[in-house]
Amino acid sequence: MTEAEARRLPKVELHCHVDGAVRPATLLDLAAKGGITLPATDAESLRPYVQVSPECRTLRDFLTTFETFYPVLEVAGAMERAAFELVEDMAADGVVHLEARFCPALQANDRQSAEDVLRATLAGLEQGARATGISVGAIVCLYRPLSHAVNSELARLAITHADRGVVGVDLAGPEDLPGAPFAEAFEIVREGGLPLTIHAGEAMGPESIVEAVDTLVATRIGHGVALRDDAELAARVADLGVTIECCLTSNLHTGAVASLDEHPFDALRRAGQAVTLNTDDPAVSGITLSHELALAADTWDYGLDDLEQIVLAGADGAFLDEDGQRVLRERVTAGFEAARAR
Ligand SMILES: [Zn+2]
Known about the structure:
By secondary structure, the chain is an alpha/beta fold.
């Protein structure tokens, strides 16, 4: 399957970071506005600095791109524009439901609070949803290197903005920093009734997944690559009904797997686990969700039935109420029926 063919299929994106999805041309505009110097002055020349090469295989090289452009995201209006354009790009790629995540504390400074950043980003997502007609939810990321106080504040902000587009909470950042110490923040999230997804089993082993599902009671796991090392845990996670947000190209670029032969996606799927395909950081990886579907189809010889099952797993795992999930399922099923008729 080609990426163009996959683009015509309805898709569900559950794991995408707003800050890893900014167009190079937008970074240039924002840098000019904020008086920030980037290593190039036109989008094509900037690309190698802010987008990894297809051969990238180390987390260090992957993260270097973020260091290059990160200051630009603090420019006033940056996250709102990035969020709006992310929805535009996802809709153009055939995504019908997007859950976009970000940690608003990372753009907070003496001119804007985390709440300001959160509200601006939510506004951008909402404008994008209205302009494109796709459904969009926001996931607030707690961040492992931040203090207990800041993560608890982020948890409170997520809860108080649940009626303004926040649909869930994530824990991101270097996995060697455990999540369990942020017990107060997770308690706030649980009491507030928002569901949790947690980055686990990407850089660290199965123990990070055990913490996520047992201690923190996450209903979705970001990456979960380490499930390949523990069949018993994989079976238990499947029994719990936890959805795994897989990000194939991102896992290659960060070195989480050396090749797709090592990726557990297909084995988990065959074992009945709810696995989904996602982009993680589409601009940094230089990919679209259609690229990921086409890649999976080519790697494991999937046809339309397989891809439909994968996209429906995303609809079932989406942070929507039952009605919302049903409507999304119908939209996906109708789109695949149309694709088969072509
Ligand atoms: Zn991620």
